Amino acid sequence: MTQPIDIPVSKIEILKSELPKNCWTQDIDIIAPHLTEWRDKYFGKTPLMLTPRCTQDVSDAVKLCAEHRISIMPQGGNTGLVGGNTPMGEVLITLKHMTRIREINTTANSLIVEAGAVLQNVLDAADAENRKFPMTLSSQGSCTVGGVLSTNAGGNHVLKYGTTKELVFGVEAVLPNGDIFNGLTNLRKDNTGYDLNRLFLGAEGTLGIITAASLKLFPKPKYVQRALIGLDSVEAAISLLEDFRAGGRLAMFEVMPAIGYHAVIDGFDSIRDPFDTSYAWYLLCDWEVESEAEGMTLAENILGKAFEAKKVLDAVIAQNETQAADILSIREHMSAGQKFLGGSVKHDITVPIDKIPEFFRLADAKMQEVVPGCRPVGFGHFGDGNIHYNIAQPEGADKKEFLANWDALSQPIFDICDALGGSISAEHGIGTMKFDDLAQRASPTKYALLKAIKRAIDPERIMNPRVMV
Amino acid sequence: MTQPIDIPVSKIEILKSELPKNCWTQDIDIIAPHLTEWRDKYFGKTPLMLTPRCTQDVSDAVKLCAEHRISIMPQGGNTGLVGGNTPMGEVLITLKHMTRIREINTTANSLIVEAGAVLQNVLDAADAENRKFPMTLSSQGSCTVGGVLSTNAGGNHVLKYGTTKELVFGVEAVLPNGDIFNGLTNLRKDNTGYDLNRLFLGAEGTLGIITAASLKLFPKPKYVQRALIGLDSVEAAISLLEDFRAGGRLAMFEVMPAIGYHAVIDGFDSIRDPFDTSYAWYLLCDWEVESEAEGMTLAENILGKAFEAKKVLDAVIAQNETQAADILSIREHMSAGQKFLGGSVKHDITVPIDKIPEFFRLADAKMQEVVPGCRPVGFGHFGDGNIHYNIAQPEGADKKEFLANWDALSQPIFDICDALGGSISAEHGIGTMKFDDLAQRASPTKYALLKAIKRAIDPERIMNPRVMV
């Protein structure tokens, strides 16, 4: 693990004296919310928080930091999950004052927005133009565009639209030397050199600071047909994928195990179970269609076929928006619902889709070896091979004692991922949390390439030096 | 322009003595077809052609070249259009002996194939599994996967599926030091570091040699509805885009001007005009649907609305596969048909979609200033903002004399692209042809980044040193 950063007071004084007064703060009350994160897993410190108002402000600040070799950590909505957004001595730079939507182009289907804009505002702006920006995350009301892009966030719509990376034409970014890279295009084709824009996406702020982005908009589907399905196995879920996605309408394929499902139903008064019986697994699907009638026909056809093939035990086809929202609510509370099960060791992994059943066989067995009685809750975006494989403590166990097993539980999971050709980080990223894991588990060739790129663009390691690589 | 390469004979002798006999040739008859390209625009030379049989062969050869600082040019199907595939003294390395499809996974919808495989074979293999690999190019019968990926080829399906870059899970590539990078995943989510795979896509062989790739397959649409539409202006074409793409079914949106259209109709006996009248512009559309009935209903609805809005003058909805093939044939012969107009100066540019009409106004006028009487033939993928803006010689002019104006005609086009926020290379790439243009027209910040990445990964400039950057 990389060490905390210690910046001499004299350097901080230079920043304070050279930068405009509205571009920095040392006010503890203002800074405090930026130093911890919502799960209270990381607590940080910073000698100074930069508060730029525009791209030029960011450039000026970074130039000065580069000149004096001052480490910087950029922060968006502070909703990250891997410690990549909690400073440990770095100068913190928050983009929260840069929130403007600069341009919407409904012919090119593009939207240019500053990095500090909250995702929900982008979703609303697209919607107002009868367009869809296909990114839904539980944190969409507080996460920012810059953070979403820097972490290559996933979410529920990856299946149809891809991860964040696929949803971006290009970015404006301030490089570690303070220069401004302008990739704010809306061109769907541009073969003039390496894909520089792409480098900044998912780079977790280690190659520069994304200050704005040109996002891809899509035609808004006229109707979304939702269904919730009861299954007897995870194999059954995977076996449905091919028929469900035929026609390219499938936009969500989320799977939940009984233990997680019932924790939500039992724990939250506002949420009810649309089924009378309990099933081992639950599958939530969305199809994006052009009319309510088309949605109903499609769902009935697809599910009818699945019933006949005995792959499905029960199903609820949402009849209206309220029912659809109620069903989605169960899935959206899966993370929160796990608190009712006590302490939880969380993983965000991918395996090849056809290896998901094998993953569960191997991982479930291994977890029992490490902590007998622990309760795996593996749910999430199975259509993308992405499992949030969380391990709840054994019933009645001591939470703190259980959480002390974090690494002992995680390393075998990562081993299984590696063996199955999976990834130890599907959508949350590396941050500080998996810094050592990446170093140890990436192939030497891959790791050397990562380091070569970091060195090429940030030779002084000014940008987020404790993060990723 | 970069200079030809001169490799001392002693170094070539080292390669010959150290590498297996079946991994190189100096046979002139075997090498000759690799030294020129189909338009006879570039003629090259090479002291040695490497003919590896497997990835390890490539690695061994590149390691040796790195050790002795021998420049290498990789070549696929030799269908490139920007001089990036014609050696001028480099050791040539052809991937044509590496053609194996290593794996097809119909659950993950992925296909792993070696770089030398001809694109058509991949299309067929996907089709045999009831899958679609959405890449259609006029050269698909001879271009190879490695070349397609290295140039980030476009084609007719970009509108719905994106350029090549979007169709790739990852690559296996031999780096300039001979190390093998293995990115052959089928994971739709993997947030473990910078997007290394993406760096090799569109890199034109300057960062390493792609030896294999994991490609994304898609559900095969059950029916493709095609229509050909007569229009009075390019503005009309652009105004149709929104309604035509609603519902996400639109998979082709190709525009042709009367001059190019009639050159094809008049020039090729086998191709006939489905219309009785001539129109100023023609639009060819595909919608991917689930049944013939759905296709007909959709086309009739969309076109009916467009007729009512007086945006469309005439339309033919393909009634069967033969009609559909006949219509596509016109578009497919657009490049070839221009030979009937004499000499042609070709451009492959993009502008933001809403700027296409403005581009034509500016460019058409400017061309008349440079060569009075010249005949612009701007056609192509307008749904992506991509125009193949070719300038045919004035009627009766001397071909050679006209072609001497290549640069004088091109530079103003590039100026207009730059001014409109476009790109001087949409899908063909930079190669040697636009090496100087990129250097002069890219922003200093962008160009510095390109060079930094090249230097980081290929510090000795061994890989395709005369190409791109």
Automatic annotation (TrEMBL), chains A, B:
One of its GO terms (molecular function) is catalytic activity. Gene3D superfamilies: 3.30.465.10, 3.30.70.2190, 3.30.70.2740, Uridine Diphospho-n-acetylenolpyruvylglucosamine Reductase, domain 2, Vanillyl-alcohol Oxidase, Chain A, domain 4. Residues 42-220 form the FAD-binding PCMH-type domain. PROSITE patterns: FAD_PCMH (PS51387). The keyword Flavoprotein applies. One of its GO terms (biological process) is respiratory electron transport chain. This is 4-phosphoerythronate dehydrogenase (FAD-dependent). The keyword Glycoprotein does not apply. Keywords: FAD, Flavoprotein. Pfam families: FAD-oxidase_C, FAD_binding_4. InterPro entries: FAD-bd_oxidored_4_C, FAD-bd_PCMH, FAD-bd_PCMH-like_sf, FAD-bd_PCMH_sub1, FAD-bd_PCMH_sub2, FAD-linked_Oxase-like_C, FAD-oxidored/transferase_4, Oxid_FAD_bind_N. Belongs to the FAD-binding oxidoreductase/transferase type 4 family. PANTHER family: BLL6224 PROTEIN, D-2-HYDROXYGLUTARATE DEHYDROGENASE, MITOCHONDRIAL.
